[in-house]
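WARN no homologs supplied; continuing
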Amino acid sequence: MNQRNLTSRQRAQFVEAVLELKRTGRYEKYVTLHAEYFASDGESGLRIAHMAPTFFPWHRQFLLAFERDLRRLDPDVTIPYWDWTRDRSPNSALWAADFMGGNGRDSDGQVMTGPFAYGYGNWPVTHGVTRERYLTRNLGRPYQPVALPTKAELDDALAIPVYDAAPWNSAPGTRGFRNRIEGWTVSEAKGGYLHNRVHQWVGGHMIGGSSPNDPVFWLHHAFIDLVWVRWQRLHPASGYLPDRALGRRDPEHGRVISADEPMPPWDTRPSEMFDHRPFYTYEEN
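OK structure emitted
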């Protein structure tokens, strides 16, 4: 469900389940897992969570695992999505004190309002790239302003008929829907990059491999998942690529997972994630 359509009770239920997962220590596994599988083009070994075709199916499995943990605490809770083409302002209800909380303060980026503010004692950051124990944000990045992606930019990406292409990474020559949505190589001056720009717009802990430290991560990636669903509906004859394992002579052999190879750490195949309907449905509005 779009987060803007949640009732006050639904907002409170989601927040409380996330806080309880934090209190029990189970939230941290998602922060560390995402950081562990945040491998870039320049690193050796397997690329799974980012800069690879598995960006969408890996994060779908990641979302499912997190939602199942939440639903063990409250069976009525689901992950809402944040449509950043519509809710584009720091003044959006998304950032209200009863939901995600607001921006970080100017001096150090510390989030001071909402249930995830460090001052309330419920959200210590224990696994991050910096030593701060408090959640940080820098909405809109005022020192070098960045705008959230527009509907037109998203529509341009959705129109791309090919899922992914060799060399299956984030290089400028890697054409396809997946790389355009992830957005590692298109310059800020030219626009066009989507998923990464949202992380940059939120700033603070949303930048980097430990981005699940900010609970808005889940709402952002729920929308990214919905974007994949929309692309599949627009291009029913275009499937996941590569559809078969890369040969040993391929320079990306051992670095990229094809449709029916298992994705660590769950051993789930991308093909098992192609259809979201066995797991959940979307209320789009």
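The two ends are 8 Å apart (CA to CA).
OK
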